[in-house]
Write a structure and sequence with these properties.
seven-stranded mixed beta sheet, alpha/beta, eight-stranded mixed beta sheet, 37% helix, 372 residues
Length: 372
């Protein structure tokens, strides 16, 4: 199979779909890899590094899309990339279709087969290709939140860890999954007062056993969310409903009761965001203010630490990329139900139910679409 790696074109996105080590592994399995010129430059990987790994270098994205049987990316294809996709071609990347009807329509029109990193599952019920970026985003959320609390970005002037004689900042994390857990770990490391709110008692018990008295946990109700958000200096939205739009847990009415200069960081923004006042921002212009509350809603947070993120993502995606290349998508999906869960679009059909429900479009089960 010929595998193509285009340069990411989303604003301030420097990650790359395959690093040279991954390229070498795919070539070892008998495949060809074509990489767009400069694809790895943003994380310090030269074209020569790819050539040494056995790849060929293409002059532009159009050449990559034209030659490749499978496209491996990081972020969802932008409109001009969607127009280069074709029937029978495989796209393997993050998609986040539920809040993005335009991209969904473009992928359906292209006729391509699109497998989304964020909906591939594991035998333990996890999301192994989303987890690395969730870890990064969780850790980053505290880092950027702490900065936004400073006066210059518009914050209230709070030092999260406090100092002797001055209490620490209060951090409230909505969701105790991968992102929320890593956010809590970082916030506790800064000696902040940290509370996680989650609707799973089992998960809250696990967190209590893991972190003990350093972490406060609370069961998710409307009242609990409101009371904790109102008193928080930093609220981190780390809610995930796999493949579906995120629920709006923090209302604008709650914002009006918060201290001006408090900060909201919405990790869930890729799935539409979990704050009523959220809208996607970019690394070039990451924040905005509503009712005196600073919002950080960058839709590709891990892109800010692109080198770390790229290598972490490749560690997770490479085994699946090898399986797809070795077997072809039909056999690979037939033999691995967890990879099949990643199938979102196939030959003009929408094959992921949560996306179909969110966008009110016709749903075709993956097994039916693939003729399994």
């Amino acid at each position: 199979m010929r595998i193509g790696v285009p340069k990411e074109v989303k604003a301030h996105e420097y990650r790359v779909g395959l690093v040279p080590g991954s390229v070498r592994e795919l070539i070892h399995h008998g495949h060809e890899v074509v990489v767009e010129q400069g694809a790895g430059a943003g994380i310090g990987i030269d074209d020569a590094d790819y050539v040494r790994a056995g790849a060929t270098i293409a002059a532009n994205a159009a050449e990559v899309f034209a030659k490749a049987d499978m496209i491996v990316k990081v972020k969802e294809p932008q409109p001009k990339e969607c127009r280069m996709l074709r029937r029978g071609q495989l796209l393997f990347t993050y998609l986040h279709l539920a809040p993005d009807p335009a991209q969904t329509a473009a992928l359906i029109k292209s006729g391509c087969t699109a497998i989304a990193y964020e909906t591939v599952t594991s035998a333990r019920g996890g999301l192994p290709l989303l987890a690395p970026m969730s870890e990064v985003a969780g850790r980053m959320s505290v880092q950027v939140g702490a900065h936004c609390l400073e006066k210059e970005p518009g914050g209230s002037g709070i030092l999260l860890g406090g100092v002797p004689g001055v209490p620490p900042g209060r951090v409230v994390i909505l969701g105790g999954g991968v992102s929320g857990t890593h956010a809590a770990r970082m916030a506790m490391g800064l000696e902040a007062h940290v509370t996680i709110i989650d609707k799973s008692l089992d998960r809250l018990k696990q967190l209590d056993e893991e972190f003990g008295s350093k972490l406060y946990t609370q069961f998710a109700t409307v009242d609990a969310i409101e009371q904790n958000v109102i008193g928080a200096d930093l609220v981190i939205g780390a809610v995930l409903v796999p493949g579906a739009a995120a629920p709006k847990l923090v209302t604008r009415a709650m914002l009006k009761k918060m201290r001006p200069g408090s900060v909201l960081v919405d990790i869930s923004i890729d799935q539409g965001g979990c704050f009523e006042t959220s809208h996607a921002t970019t690394h070039a212009d990451p924040t905005y203010v509503v009712d005196g509350i600073v919002h950080y809603c960058v839709a590709n947070m891990p892109g800010a630490v692109a080198r770390t993120s790229t290598f972490a993502l490749n560690n997770a995606t490479l085994p699946f990329a090898v399986a797809l290349a070795n077997k072809g998508y039909r056999r690979a999906c037939a033999e691995d139900v967890h990879l099949r869960h990643g199938l979102n679009i196939h030959a003009g059909k929408l094959t992921y139910k949560a996306v179909a429900d969110a966008l009110r479009l016709k749903y075709t089960p993956a097994e039916e679409a693939l003729g399994l």
